[in-house]
Design brief:
This protein is of the alpha+beta class. The protein is 31% helix and 20% strand.
Amino acid sequence: MDAIRGPGLYDPRNEHDACGVGFVADIKGRKSHDIIKNGLQILLNLDHRGAVGADPLMGDGAGCMIQMPDGLLRHWAGERGIELPPEGRYAVAMCFLPMDEEARAYARQHFEGFIRAEGQRLVGWRDVGIDLTGLGRKVIETMPFISQAIVAANPNLTDQDAFERKVLTIRKQTLNSLSRLAQERNLPELPQFYMPSFSTRTVVYKGLLLAGQVESFYDDLRNPLTVSALALVHQRFSTNTFPSWRLAHPYRFICHNGEINTVRGNTNWMAARRQAMSSDLLGDDLAKMVPLIGPNQSDTACLDNALELLVIGGGYSLAHSMMMLIPEAWADPLMEPDRRAFYEYHAALMEPWDGPAAIAFSDGRQIGATLDRNGLRPARYVLTDDDQVILASEAGVLPVPEEKIVKKWRLQPGKMLLIDLEQGRIISDDEIKRQLAAQHPYDNWLRETQYKLEELPEAPEATVPHVSNDPSTRLDLQQAFGYTQ
C-alpha cells in the first residue's frame, strides 16, 4: 500500500482531475457589477483546473455567462441613435464570425435572411470590444471576429418564451444550413461561424482563453454598466475534443465538470427518435431544426442541445429537464414511490446522459447545479448572510469571512441545488422533486402502459416454434441478427 501511496496521507488514487466550474448569484435577483467581478475572481482561482499547452499563453478555453446587460446595450444604442426595444423584447446573438471579410459578409447575410424569414427584425450589429494584450500567437491566429446581432421580436409575439422559441429556430437553421453549404462549396472559413449564445435573457463571453484573460479580453466585462445577478464561469480541461474557441464553456444553458461517457448512444437515440417527435410549442418549426444535435461537437455541447430542446421546445422546466437528463439512482427501494415512478416513467422518454459530472446550469431566471448519481465530481457551495450563493468544483474559491457564512455544504450524488432569482429563494432538492413527482399520476401511467415479462401468460405449447440446436443453423440466425464473433 505504501509503495503505491507513498509517505503521508496523500493518496494519488483519490485524485480526480477535471475542469473548473463555478457560479455566484444573488438570491434576491439584485443585479450589480460586483457579481460579475466575483464570478471572474472565481474563474481566476480555478486557474489550476484548466489545461495549458506547449504555449503557456494558450489554454483549453474559459468563459462567463451573465444576464442580459441591458444598461450596456441601451447606452450603446443611445450613442448611435438606435431605438432598442424594452428588455425581453429583443435577443442578442453572440457571434463568432470568419475573419475573412468576404466570408464574414456572407455569413451575416445568411443569418439575416433567416431572421427575416422567421418574421423578426434585425436592430443592428454591435462589434464587441476586445483587448489582445497577453494572448498567445496561436490564440490570435485562430481567433474569430466577435460581434453581437441584436434582434427585435415581432409585435405579434407577445410572449417572451415564444420569442425564445423563434430565436432557437433561427439559430438552428442558420448554423445547420451554413455548415452544409460550406461543405458543398469547400469553403473552410464559413464553419467558423458560431453562436455561443442567442437569447433574450443571457449572454455568454467565452473563448480560447486562460482564466485570467476572460476579463482582460472582453471590454464589456470590465464596463461598470454591465450588471447581472448571476455569473456562471468555467475553466476547461478538454478530455475528448481538441481545444477551440467554440468548444469553450459555458454553453447556452450549461457548463460542465466531467465527462458524459454515454454521449454517442445519447446522440444516436436523439436522431433515431426524431421522426416520432412532435411539439405543440414549436409546431412546424421543429422540422427546421434538424439535426437537433449538430455534428463534431463535444459531449457538453450535445447535452446542451438536448437541454435546450426540452426547455424551449418541450416546455419542461429547467429542473424537470435536468432530472430527465441526469437522473438519480432511482432503482432504490428506499426512494419515495412517487419519485421513483417519476424517474421510471421518464426513463422510457429519455435515456440518461451518464458519466462523472457536476453540471451547473442557468436560463437567466434560475441558476443551479446537479451531480451525477455516483457523485464522482465535486461541487461545494456557501450561502452568505447577504443572500449570495457561491458554488464551485472546490471550496475556497472566494474569500468569505466565517461570520458571514450561513451555511456551507457539498452537493451530494444525484442531488440538485436550485436558486430561483424571480422568487428570490433557494428551492431545496426535496421540494423540487416532490413537487415534480406529484404533478402527474406517474405510478398509474406506468401500471397502465407497462408490460412485465413475468406477468405475461404462458404461450400454448403448439405455438412455441421449434428452433434447431444445429451449430450451422444457429450461426445463420446469429449472423442474421447482428451477433459478432
